[in-house]
Automatic annotation (TrEMBL):
InterPro entries reported in the protein's UniProt record: Peptidase_S54_rhomboid_dom, Rhomboid-like_sf, Rhomboid_protease_S54
Native source species: Thermotoga maritima (strain ATCC 43589 / DSM 3109 / JCM 10099 / NBRC 100826 / MSB8)
Organism phylogeny: Bacteria, Thermotogati, Thermotogota, Thermotogae, Thermotogales
Protein name in UniProt: Peptidase S54 rhomboid domain-containing protein
Major place of residence: membrane
GO molecular function: serine-type endopeptidase activity
Alphabetically ordered keywords of this record: Hydrolase, Membrane, Transmembrane, Transmembrane helix
Family, per entry: Belongs to the peptidase S54 family.
Subcellular location: Membrane
Length: 222
């Protein structure tokens, strides 16, 4: 099920979402300009390496820095990696930004990425593989969307036997299925993808979404 767009129009221009996409693209273009050695060093310096904080020899090699908890979410490991993350951010980000406002959405996005990274960190304390990508923060956006706009519909490219067809799936069910897949992979321990970052980001987004929804209900009630 590949999402193409949602049917819920945004009221305002999603300036922050557009800016985040542009920043990620600029950083990725910079990555493409590096040779293999430079790129490896770049990933280890600005990607999140859990062992940097838990294994003494890795601490000594990389040095202590909390910056990767932020910078990791602007790095990507390949074309399809960044394309997928930015596509999902574009679909779910505009309405979420609409609801939160530009400043609130910016703070939410960055904090969701940090919380997602911390979640992955807890499950991979001694890993020496750099965690990179916006997927944790984007998962946070999706979690907030799940709570704030459950009745929206996601136009999805759906395979039926040998044919592809467009299907409108309620956002609640689409995102619930997506989240279930992340949890399943996290429990199985599929290698190479930060499943727990996706899970942590999504739950964090749900909490933010719930708080905003309660405020909205309270505002309308009074």
């Amino acid at each position: 099920m590949f999402p193409l767009y949602d049917v819920l129009p945004s009221r305002k221009k999603p300036y922050v979402t557009i800016a985040l996409i542009l920043i990620n693209v600029v950083v990725f273009v910079y990555e493409l300009m590096l040779n293999d050695r430079e790129l490896l060093l770049f990933m280890y310096r600005y990607g999140l390496v859990p062992a940097r904080y838990t294994v003494e020899r890795v601490k000594e090699a990389l040095g202590f820095s909390l910056l990767p908890f932020i910078t990791h979410m602007f790095l990507h490991g390949g074309f399809w990696h960044i394309l997928g993350n930015m596509w999902f951010l574009w679909i779910f980000g505009d309405n979420t930004e609409d609801e939160m406002g530009h400043v609130g959405y910016t703070l939410f996005y960055l904090s969701a990425g940090i919380f997602a990274a911390l979640t992955q960190f807890v499950f991979t304390l001694h890993s020496t593989t750099p965690m990179v990508g916006a997927s944790g923060a984007v998962s946070g956006v999706m979690g907030a969307y799940f709570v704030l706009f459950p009745y929206s519909r996601i136009v999805t490219l759906f395979p039926i036997f040998f044919f592809l067809t467009l299907v409108e799936i309620p956002a609640f069910y689409y995102l619930m299925i997506w989240f279930f897949i992340q949890v399943l992979n996290g429990l199985v321990g599929s290698y190479g993808i930060a499943w727990w970052a996706h899970i942590g980001g999504f739950v964090y987004g749900m909490i933010w979404g719930y708080i905003l929804r309660m405020r909205r209900i309270h505002r309308y009630r009074y």
